[in-house]
Amino acid sequence: MDHGLASVVVRHTHRVPVPPPSGSGRQGEFAARQLDATLMTVGFKLSAELLERLAELPEETVAETGRWTLRTVGEMVGDHVRHNVYFRDFPANVPDTFDFWMSCVADALADPAARAGTLDQLREGVVDLLTLPAYGTYHHAYEEMLAAHEELIDAAGDRITVLHLGDALESEAGALYLALAGSVTPLGEERLADLRVLAGVCADGPQPAEIPVRENRAVVNRARLEVGCPPLLDTVTDVLRLACALSDGDVTLREPTRFRALSRPVRRALLGGLDAVVAASPAKLTDVPAYGEQWKRLGERLHPHEYPKWPHAAAVFEVARGERRVRSLDSRVEELLEGGQVAEAAELLTSAPGRLYRGLDRLLRSARDQEQRDAVVAAALRTVGQVSGRVVLSVREHLHNRAAKSDRRRVFVNRAGGGWVADDTRAPVPEREREALIAALDAETARRLPDPGHLLIDPGMLDVALPLSGRAAPSGLGVLPRGSLSRVEGELLRFFVYWKERRRTTDYDLSAVMLDAEYEPMAWLSWTSLTEVEGEHSGDITEAPDGASEFIDLRLGAVRGTYLVPEVDIYSGESFDEVGESFFGFMLREAEQRGRPFEPRTVRLKSELRGPGRVALPVAFVRGADGWQAKWLHVYLKGDPARNTVEGNRLTVGALLRAVMEHESLTIRHLVGLLADRADSVTLWDGTTLPEGPVTFLGLARPEGLHPHSRVLTPENLRDAIPA
C-alpha cells in the first residue's frame, strides 16, 4: 500500500483505506484493539465497523495499518514533533517578567564570556535580551520537561475523532480525486498539492464530468499530459496555468513562475491547444494582457516562431509583446461607464455573467437614474442561471452586508489570506434593487440545491460559514472556514505555536491580546508580559533549528475582556511561507486534568501557518451571554519587516476584529433555511439517536451508525454544500 497516498485519504475524509477481509478468521483482533487504545491517547478512535474489519485481517496487515495511521493522525493534531517549553514547569512557576529579565542579566554577569559586554550595555542603559546567554534557548531536555509534569487525567470533554472504515485505497483515492477535481470552490495550496498527487495516480481512471475551477483544471491537465491524454482547454489562460503546473509554479498566477525548458512534445501540445482555443474564439485574445509578462516569459520557452502552422498561437505572444492591440472586455466596460452609459455596460457584461455579478455593486452605484438601475437589475436577472453557485452565494453575502449603515469599516482579505481594513466610503446600494437581487439569488440557490430527503442537523454546524474562497480555511484539524462561529467549552484555554526554521535563525512570538466591548486593548500576554490575571506565557524561544514551541495558558473565567485574540508575530527571520514548518492551535481542558504542556487529545484546532505578512491571526474568541465562542479569522497582517510585537499592532488588531465582527458571513443556517421547504422532514440532532433510513446529515463530524446511503456534509467536504 502507498502509505503517503493513504495518509492523504485519511486527512481529507477520516476514512482508513483497508483491503477486503482475508477469510482467515480473526487473526488481527488483538492488534486492532491495541491500535484503538493507542489512537485514543492522541484523541482518535476506530469506528466499530473499522475495528471489526481490522480484526478480520492478518495481524501483520493490522500492524502496518496502525503504523501509518498513527503517523498520519499525529501530524494532523501536531503530535509528530516534540513540544518543549522555556519554563520547564509551565504553567506553574512562571516568573514575573521583570524578575526574569533581571535573573538573565545576573546570569550573564556571572558568565566570564558575557560579563564585559553586559556591563557595557548596563552603562549605556539598554540591555539587548538576545545577547544574554540564559535568554531565548532551551536549558533542559524534552525528557526533563516531561518528568516535571503529571499524567493527563481523562475527562468527558476530551476530543475524540472517529476514523471510519474505508474501501480499498484505489477506490478511496479515486473518489477523493473526483471530489477535489470537481470542486466548485478553489482549493487552498495544501489541497492543491494533494490534488496534484491524486491526479497523477488517477490519470488513467474515471475523470470528473466538469472541472469548474481553473486552478484545479491546470493540475489535472498536467497529469493528463504526462500520460499522453490531451489537456482540457477552453481559454488562453488555461494554457498559461498548465505551463505553470508543468514547471511546479503557481497555478493561481498570483506569483510569477520561472518556466523550465520544455520538451518538444510538450511544446507542441501547449501551442496546438493554444492555437485551437484562439481559432475557435479570437475574442479570447483579450485575456492575454492581464498576464502579459508571464506570456512573454513562456514564449521564450515555447518558441512559437518554429511552428508556423499555428498562427493563432503566435498571435497570443504578439499581443503579450504589444505588437498587436486588442481591446479587453474590461476596457470597453470602463469606456462606457466613463461616458455614463451604465445600461450599455451592463448589457455588454451579459456576455460574461460572472463579471457582471462581481460588478453589480459598482454598476448600481454608478447608475444616474431609475431607468439605468432597472436595466442593471434586468441584465442580472436574465443571466442569474449562468453564474456559478459560488458567485451566486458570494454576491448574496456581499449584498446582505451592503445595507445602509453609518460608521462602517470594510475588511479586505485577499486570496492568500492577507488582510487590511479601510473606511467604507461607498454610497449605499439602493435598497429596492438590493432586495430584488437578494430574492433572485436566494431563489436561484434553492433551485440548484438537491432534494435533501430527511435533513438531520447538528446544531453546532449552523453557524459554520460557507467556504466561498480558496483560503477560507487552511489545512489542519478542527479548522472551520473564515467567519464561522463555534462554541468553546472548558475551564482552561491553551494556545500553542510551533515553528522550525529552514535556513535562517527565526524567532516567532506567540501573544494574546484582550479587548473590551469597544475593541480597545486591555491587557496582553507575551514575552514582554509573561503573567497576567488571566494566565501565563511559557517563555520566549528565539531560534528553532530543531523546532520550537511557545504556549499561552488562560483561565477563561478570569478573562476580563469581551474579545481574546491570539496572534503569532514574526520577530525576525523567515516568513510563514519560507519556514520549514509552522502551525498554530489551541487546546481545551479542565483545571484538574494536569498533563503536559501539549496533550494531543485536548487539541481542538491545529492549523497550518502559511500566508503573507508578518502577523498571523488564526482565530478570535468572543464572550457572549451564554459563554465563549471562537470566531475563525485565518488572516495575515502585513506588519513590520522585523520586531513585530503585540504592543505594536494591538490597535490594528482591534480595528480588524471590529470589521470582521460587523461582517455577517453566509452560513449553513442560510442553506438550511432554503432546504427546509423541500425536505421531507428536518431534525436537530441531539447527539444520540439516529434515524434508521438514509438522511442528509450536516454536522461537525460524521457520527457512527448513519445509514450507509446517507449524504454527509462535514467541515472536511463542506465545499460540496456549494451548488454548481
Task: Please describe the structure with a list of short key phrases separated by commas or semicolons.
single chain; 724 residues; alpha+beta; 7-stranded antiparallel beta sheet; 22 strands
What does this structure look like?
- This protein is an alpha+beta fold.
- The protein is 37% helix and 17% strand.
- The model has no long low-confidence stretch (mean pLDDT 94).
- It has a seven-stranded antiparallel sheet, with no helix packed on it. Strands 8-19-18-15-10-11 form a six-stranded antiparallel sheet, with helices on one face.
- The relative contact order is 0.11.
Mean pLDDT: 94
Biggest sheet, open or closed, and with what strands and sense? 7 strands, antiparallel
- State the assembly state of the protein chains: single chain
Structural class: alpha+beta
Which percent band covers the strand fraction?
A: 15-25%
